[in-house]
Amino acid sequence: MRKKEISMIILAGGASSRMGRDKSDLTIDGKTFLEMQIEKGEKLGISDILLSGYHGENKYKYPIIPDRFPGKGPLGGLEACFRKAKNPYCLVLGVDVPLVPAEELAALIRQSLHSDAKAVILSHGGHEEPLMGVYCTDLADAMLEEITERKGAVFAFLRKNGYECYESQAAAWYFSNINDSETYKEIARNHFRFNWKTVMRVDRNV
After folding, report:
1. Is 11 annotated to bind ligand?
2. 170 annotated among ligand-binding-site residues
3. What is the DSSP letter of 171?
4. Is 152 annotated as contributing to ligand binding?
5. What gap in Å lies between CA 45 and CA 133, rounded to an integer?
6. Residue 119, annotated ligand binder?
7. 12 in a labelled binding site
8. Is the overall model pTM greater than 0.85, yes or no?
9. For 154-182, what is the mean pLDDT?
10. What is the band of 20 on the pLDDT scale with cuts at 50, 70, 90?
11. Pairing mode of beta strands 119-124, 164-168
12. For the chain, what is the radius of gyration of the CA atoms?
């Protein structure tokens, strides 16, 4: 696999029930979570970027891909996007982990270049992140079977089809899932002003 053979899928279709509004449109330092993830893909040289299940204002130049089978979770979004991707591999990234450094994604991609596994996912401190990985798009049919005949559990799918991990040494907070308002505000208080020396604008609607 060469770098130019990678597409990117940003999973942006979650219910956001704990946050109370669409996580994709929350902001950090004036940029939405979705914009931050798109910029990472562009920094990595990826031109085929797919926005899975995004329900917000269509202000991006990249296509929004709806689930073919709604309500099936992340695998439902991936199944639809794998069939639209222009390349045989996809970098998969959730919209709710906007702090992950592009450098870690680049390292993940580098490991996948030398792997025979159908999926290479990121791991940190022994915690595996199935929605932060590089997947073969030829898994689409297996995903269809998983979401239509079984529960559509991501790890069950990975165990059945095989995967390996890229072990990141980056600090754990970079991989924070920002799924509720308290986590959102905690990240602002405890990290941004001090670690990145910038002011995080906490959305007033959260």
Report:
1. yes
2. no
3. -
4. no
5. 16
6. no
7. yes
8. yes
9. 93
10. low
11. parallel
12. 16
